């Protein structure tokens, strides 16, 4: 087998693929955070818990209702997104006139509640979720074996991210959304129901996190902590990318996933911290983030 | 967002002619200080001293955190890093280097302050929500370092840290003796924060909280002020963590974990952001709650989450803030 930079090729490509998959989740999560932040001006700390709810919802649909992966992919974002809509209406909407930090504190508390309830119900050891039969197996690409499911996750995440980008940048609905991000009272004066749009935007961001959870369920074991560990890294990703640009979030997410994968090959000790180090460097060089507006 | 209420809900109604009373405390605050001193003095004869020492460590931790959120308006979501690192360094200094407890605690505090200087230097480049996210991410990095570095003992932590003898002469093996030392450290930290807030430097901090662009236009280099506040806060958090590890003889990953950062936010929020005594009361409430509910396991997390939600939605002044509002005084 060939070596690249003194590293066996299968190891290098294997870690690159893992990095790409992590990057797919970073991209989807930071995209959801950015969309929510754009309109609601809060950082949704519950995002990690909602990602975890997505994975658990898929597991419950399979175990309790016998609905397979494909149904989960369709139903879970709707179900979990709806819980997000309820949260926004009941609680988050009360905070818009206050300092934005209260939104962070509230969603942090909600995240604790959700995680705690799931830990009581299911323990913290994790539940298995099988890869759907259609996506089992692996392709031989010549230089490495690509498990089909992993390839599917990367492609599905890319499609979802690009669809979100098209929705926001190229449709009329997206134009309303961008306008409301800039100046909500003015858009409301034109007869657009901004509060409803805000609610639905939150639901949409949550649904994105939930789909991420469904995609992640067969790769990682389904456990109550799976979201929290992810969300802190995603915060760093968001700081690096800046929340100003949708495309920027996607590129930063995938890019940092790849960087993390490469670090695992060349200097494994730093793989857990590399994203935070990059965050510090970016802050020193470009405080607004790579794609952010000051 | 001109109409947005500042996070420190308690900051606003200052009496027109603020009487500077005794040692910079208003008359009401002086009364509250008297109550606190009385509780400190008779506490160990009524309650288990080790429990009280834990409470005091967290109270100092919360006061240090409150210095940032309450008086500069910066929400740090990573204060566990300084608390935990202070604990590790104090433990290492006492156990491996054989330092006396007061030197070990100073080592812990100084390390935390140094760490705070580096992290603060990075974090103060952004405000508000970004500041919270950055401090959380940096703290997570420190957490991973603590998992990997050999001197922290990984999952086991540093165990069997000796209490030693104060100044090498007063042995601290008896809980009650150690209690007086811990109470002294807490009081020193508490009064130091009080002094900082009421100094000219503290006034500039408050002006940064209220209107940073204005403070800049008046010629203050606000970044320097914020950085110094961050260092002081991190250092005091480190002292709190260091004291805790000397008291319990153990320093573990729990104290650097992000959930500890959440807990100190919760303590301060429950007691009252930006109040002098709020963090102390909040720490007492949360530590007591954890003590009595420990057997409920993961439900403690749920209960903490519920308290967060209730505080943010309906109880933003916190306990001390509400009392102060009711008595029409600043506490």
Written description of the protein model:
- The complex is a heterodimer of chains A (294) and B (331).
- Chain A is built from eleven helices and four strands; from the N terminus they run ββααααββααααααα.
- Chain A has 294 residues and is mainly α.
- Chain A has one domain (24-234).
- Chain A has a two-stranded antiparallel ribbon with strand order 1-2. A two-stranded antiparallel sheet of chain A has the order 3-4.
- In chain A, a hairpin with a 2-residue loop joins β1 (3-4) and β2 (7-8).
- In chain A, α1 crosses α9 (226-241), α2 packs across α3 (69-90) and α5 (148-170) packs across α6.
- The radius of gyration of chain A is 19 Å and the shape is globular.
- The model of chain A has no long low-confidence stretch (mean pLDDT 88).
- Chain B is globular and about 50 Å long.
- Chain B is mainly α and 331 residues long.
- Chain B has a domain at 38-257.
- Chain B has a two-stranded antiparallel ribbon.
- The chains are: A mainly alpha (294), B mainly alpha (331).
- At the A-B interface, α4, α9 and α11 of A face α5, α10 and α12 of B.
Characteristics of this structure?
heterodimer, A: 294 residues, mainly alpha, two-stranded antiparallel sheet, two-stranded antiparallel ribbon, 4 strands, globular, B: 331 residues, 2 strands
């Amino acid at each position: 087998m060939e070596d690249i930079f003194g590293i066996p090729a299968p190891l290098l490509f294997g870690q690159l693929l893992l990095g790409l998959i992590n990057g797919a989740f970073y991209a989807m999560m930071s995209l959801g955070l950015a969309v929510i932040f754009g309109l609601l001006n809060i950082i949704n700390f519950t995002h990690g818990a909602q990602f975890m709810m997505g994975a658990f919802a898929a597991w419950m649909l399979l175990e309790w209702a016998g609905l397979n992966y494909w149904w989960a992919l369709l139903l879970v974002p709707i179900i979990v997104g709806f819980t997000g809509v309820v949260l926004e209406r009941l609680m988050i909407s009360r905070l818009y006139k206050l300092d934005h930090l209260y939104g962070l504190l509230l969603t942090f508390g909600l995240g604790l509640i959700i995680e705690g309830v799931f830990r009581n119900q299911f323990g913290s050891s994790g539940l298995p979720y099988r890869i759907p039969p259609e996506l089992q197996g692996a392709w031989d690409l010549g230089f490495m074996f690509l498990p089909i499911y992993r390839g599917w996750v990367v492609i599905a995440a890319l499609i979802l991210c690009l669809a979100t980008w098209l929705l926001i940048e190229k449709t009329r609905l997206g134009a309303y959304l961008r306008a409301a991000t800039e100046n909500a009272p003015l858009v409301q004066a034109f007869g657009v129901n901004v509060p409803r749009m805000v609610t639905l935007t939150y639901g949409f961001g949550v649904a994105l996190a939930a789909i991420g959870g469904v995609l992640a369920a067969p790769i990682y074991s389904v456990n109550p902590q799976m979201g929290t560990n992810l969300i802190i890294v995603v915060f760093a990703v968001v700081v690096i990318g800046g929340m100003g640009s949708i495309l920027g979030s996607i590129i930063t997410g995938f890019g940092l996933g790849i960087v993390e994968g490469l670090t695992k090959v060349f200097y494994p000790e730093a793989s857990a911290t590399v994203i935070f180090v990059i965050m510090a460097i970016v802050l020193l060089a470009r405080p607004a983030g790579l794609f952010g507006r000051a | 967002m001109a109409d947005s209420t500042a996070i420190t809900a308690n900051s606003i109604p200052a009496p027109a002619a603020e009487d500077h009373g005794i040692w910079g405390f208003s008359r009401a605050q002086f009364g509250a200080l008297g109550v606190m001193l009385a509780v400190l003095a008779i506490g160990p004869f009524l309650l288990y001293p080790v429990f009280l020492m834990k409470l005091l460590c967290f109270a100092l931790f919360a006061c240090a955190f409150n210095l940032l959120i309450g008086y500069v308006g910066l929400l740090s979501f990573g204060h566990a890093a300084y608390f935990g690192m202070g604990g590790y360094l104090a433990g290492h200094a006492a156990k491996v280097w054989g330092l006396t407890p007061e030197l070990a605690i100073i080592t812990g505090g100084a390390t935390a302050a140094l760490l705070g200087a580096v992290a603060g230097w990075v974090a103060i480049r952004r405000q508000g929500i970004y500041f919270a996210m950055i401090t959380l991410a940096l703290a997570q990095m420190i957490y991973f370092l603590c998992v990997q570095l050999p001197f922290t003992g990984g999952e086991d932590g540093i165990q069997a840290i000796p209490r030693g003898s104060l100044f090498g002469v007063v042995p601290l093996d008896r809980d009650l003796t150690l209690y007086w030392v811990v109470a002294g450290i807490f009081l020193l930290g508490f009064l130091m924060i009080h002094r900082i807030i009421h100094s000219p430097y503290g006034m500039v901090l408050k002006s940064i909280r209220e209107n940073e662009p204005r403070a800049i236009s008046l010629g203050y280099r606000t970044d320097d002020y914020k950085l110094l506040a961050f260092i002081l806060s991190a250092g005091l958090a480190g002292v709190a963590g260091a004291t805790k590890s000397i008291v319990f003889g153990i320093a573990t990953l729990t104290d650097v974990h992000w959930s500890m950062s959440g807990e100190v936010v919760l303590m301060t929020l429950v007691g009252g952001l930006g109040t002098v005594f709020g963090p102390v009361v909040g720490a007492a409430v949360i530590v007591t709650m954890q003590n009595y509910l420990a057997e409920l396991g993961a439900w403690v997390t749920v209960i903490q989450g519920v308290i967060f939600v209730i505080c943010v939605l309906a109880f933003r002044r916190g306990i001390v803030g509400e009392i102060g509002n009711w008595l029409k005084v600043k506490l």
